[in-house]
Structure formats: C-alpha cells, structure tokens
Amino acid sequence: MDSLTSAGPVTRKTFDEVVVQTYAPSNLVPVRGLGLEVWDQDDKRYLDLTAGIGVTSLGHANPALVAVLHTQAERLWHVGNSYTNEPVLRLARALTEATFADRAFFCNSGAEANEAAFKLARKYAHGKFGPAKSRIVSCTNSFHGRTLFTVSVGGQPKYTEGFEPLPPQIDHIPFNDIAAARTAIGDDVCAVVVEPIQGEGGVVPASPEYLKALRELCDATGALLIFDEVQCGMGRTGELFAYMGYGVTPDILTSAKALGNGYPVGAMLTTNAAASAFTVGAHGTTYGGNPLAASVALKVLETINTPEFLARVRQASETFIHVLQSIVRDYPHVFSEVRGRGLMLGMVLAEGYRGRAKDIAKAAETQGLMILIAGMDVVRFLPALVISDAQIEESNRLLRCALEAFLSQAK
C-alpha cells in the first residue's frame, strides 16, 4: 500500500477531527497542481490566482525547481549550524549582489525573518545608543507574522487579543500619514517597520513621499528602517524588490513566501553596519539556510531576477489591471476601485457590499477560480508571476460568472 494512503483516506472532515482549529479552510482539498492549475480530490480543475498567498510565484510543481530539489535531495539535506554549506553561500552571495544588502540571515518563514529584523534593530540600538533607544514604530493594519513579537508589531488588534501581556515599546501610526510619522518617530525609536505595499491590510501601496519621509526620519534619529517585503518582494511588483521601484533603500529587508516557491525559507537582508550587532550566539535557527531550501531559493532568484522575466510581470500586470478595471466599470455597485502594484492587486468593495469579500471568493471557487481576500472588504489577487494572457482572460470570464452567481444569491 502507498505510504501516503496507508492510514486510510482523508477528507476536509479529517481537518476538523485532528488539526488544531487555527484556520477554517475551504472544503476544497487540493491534491496536485501544475503552473496555475490545481486539481482537488474529485479531480475538479481550478485556476489558481492565490499562489498559496503569494508563495508559488513560479507556479505549482515548476519543473526547474523540482529538478533542483531532486538533485540536492540526493546530495545533502542538513548539517546544523556548526557548519555552513555551499548552497546557502551561493544564495547569500546572489542576494547581496542583487540588492543593497551586505549580509543575509536565513530562516524558515516571514515571521522568523521579521523576528530577526526586530531583534537586530534593538540589539543594534542598545549597543550604539543604550537601552533607552528601544521603541519600534509600525503601522496600523500591518501584518508581520504570528510570533508574539511580530504579531505585536503588526497593527491588527484581532491577532493579539488574549495573548497579553504583549512586548512593550511598540507603537502604531496610520499608514501613509507623514504627519503622524513625524510626531511618533523620536530619538527613543530603534526601528521603523513598514510594508511598501500592505497585503493583509487591504493591498494598499505606500506613497513614494511616505517612504522617503520615513527614510529621512530614520536618518535624523538614528533608527533603522525595515521594509517587510515578505509578500510584495521577489518580483511581485515587477521589480525584484518593491523598494527598487520606490527609490528608497531600507537598512533591513525581510523576504520569504515566493523566495522558496513553497519550500519554507525566509531571509533577512541588511548592511554590514547593522549586521555587526549580531555576534556569535546572539541569534540562530536550526533549519535556517539548510541546503534544500537554499538550493530552491537560489533557482527562484535566478529565474525571477532577469530583465525579461520582470518585464513580463509588468506587462501581465497591465493586462490584468485592465481586466479588473473593466469589471469595476461593469459592476460599479459591487466594486469601487482596483489598487495595488504589479501582480499584487485588490478590488475594493463598494459601500453596499462591504463585508462580503469572502462570499465572492466562495462563489469564485464554485466556478473553478481560486482567489483571496484582504480583510472583509477587498478581493485580492496574487497569481503566479508566470500567468499567461490566456489565463488572465480565463480569470475575467470565471470572475464574471462568479459575480453573477453571487449577485443572484444576494438578492
């Protein structure tokens, strides 16, 4: 008997029986995928515009990544942090050559990358200025992970309720509000953290003026500027990282999600000056930078970071935005606008349909289209970056069918 089925069949009901209920997943249980296509347990086919929440940016079961993983799996899986390994050294060199950074720290997720960034910022400030410089300033409606530290820095109280007492010296300001930033960022601030495009907060891009103002305020106060690019990085905006399109360089950048195309890996990128605060033993991780993850991530980086690939992302973005805007024009009572950058896009619900984003996503799933939400008022799209024009047109057709079904039920 196949080892994958030796314990007997499993269904969505099995989740309710044996898994901790931190999520309420769809009844759809994907079993295989290829590119932007997914098939469920009944062999029904879906067009996937979620990419696993911005993760499988090169598509499901990407052949080049499968080959790299297979090759590395036959060589070396894990050695522990008493040793380094060739794949992680190649990945670190490639990331630093492609970005502002001098140094990279590898871990397993975006939350861990942000945890490392926040710890580094405090360690750096304590060493250079003393323990009084410890406050972290973040934005309301931000999301930086689910550890106690990162969820506290994130600006959504629904994720911290019941986990008090929370880590102190963390303040939140309105996103894109320069005046609020000037008021909040003083000499006791060790770090300012911001998503260049808020993802979970509603697919809201930062204005160039806002990010430039944060850079100036950090320079004036000695705080480190941290860009959380876990969702918006790795080609998602049509640049390798979003900061490149803004012309504002952070001191620390965090990456994960698409970096491994589904293989768990995260990275914190930073300068020599900031990195010097992390001495031997100051921080660590068992699996971070293991050869399997590093091999896959390097291939992902090499694939995305070419002028041709990024140009195609920008071209696909224009085509997809045009499609979504046409839907807004045809359904003005349902949607008010399209926002976002690259292939990180959201359709904002109009007043009369606020709170119904999940209902629209369910209707889309029934039509064979997998989409996301960003809160209850925004329908979110994070398709694989390799989406074709034909798949964009199919998205148009399926989404319109879903809206008609949704509206017929909403009457």
Overall number of strands: 17
Q: Rg, please?
A: 21 Å
Strand order of the largest sheet: 4-12-11-10-7-5-6
- Beta-strand content bin: 15-25%
Overall outline: globular
**Tally of helical segments:** 14
> Helix fraction?
25-40%
Coarse structural class:
alpha/beta
Q: Which residues sit in consecutive blocks of at least 5 with pLDDT less than 50?
A: none
Mean of pLDDT: 96
Gap between N and C termini? 50 Å
Query: Main beta sheet: strand number and arrangement?
Result: 7 strands, mixed
Give a quick set of tags describing it:
single chain, 411 residues, alpha/beta, 7-stranded mixed sheet, 4-stranded mixed sheet
Write the layout of secondary structure elements.
Elements: H1 12-18, E1 30-34, E2 37-40, E3 45-48, H2 51-54, H3 63-73, H4 86-98, E4 103-107, H5 110-129, E5 135-139, H6 148-153, E6 170-173, H7 178-184, E7 189-194, E8 197-198, E9 204-205, H8 208-221, E10 224-228, H9 242-246, E11 252-255, E12 266-270, H10 272-275, H11 291-304, H12 307-330, E13 335-341, E14 344-349, H13 357-366, E15 369-370, E16 372-373, E17 378-381, H14 389-410
Parallel strand pairs: 3-15, 5-6, 5-7, 7-10, 10-11
Antiparallel strand pairs: 1-2, 2-3, 4-12, 8-9, 11-12, 13-14, 14-17, 16-17
Helix pairs in contact: 3-11, 4-11, 12-14, 13-14
Please tell me about this protein's structure.
Strand 13 and strand 14 form a beta hairpin. This protein has 411 residues and is of the alpha/beta class. The longest helix is centred in the C-terminal third of the chain and has 24 residues. The chain is built from 14 helices and 17 strands. The protein is globular, with a radius of gyration of 21 Å. Helix 3 runs antiparallel to helix 11, helix 4 packs parallel to helix 11 and helix 13 crosses helix 14. Helices cover 39% and strands 18% of the residues. A 7-stranded mixed β-sheet has the order 4-12-11-10-7-5-6, sandwiched between helices. The chain has a 4-stranded mixed β-sheet with strand order 1-2-3-15. Strands 13-14-17-16 form a 4-stranded antiparallel β-sheet.
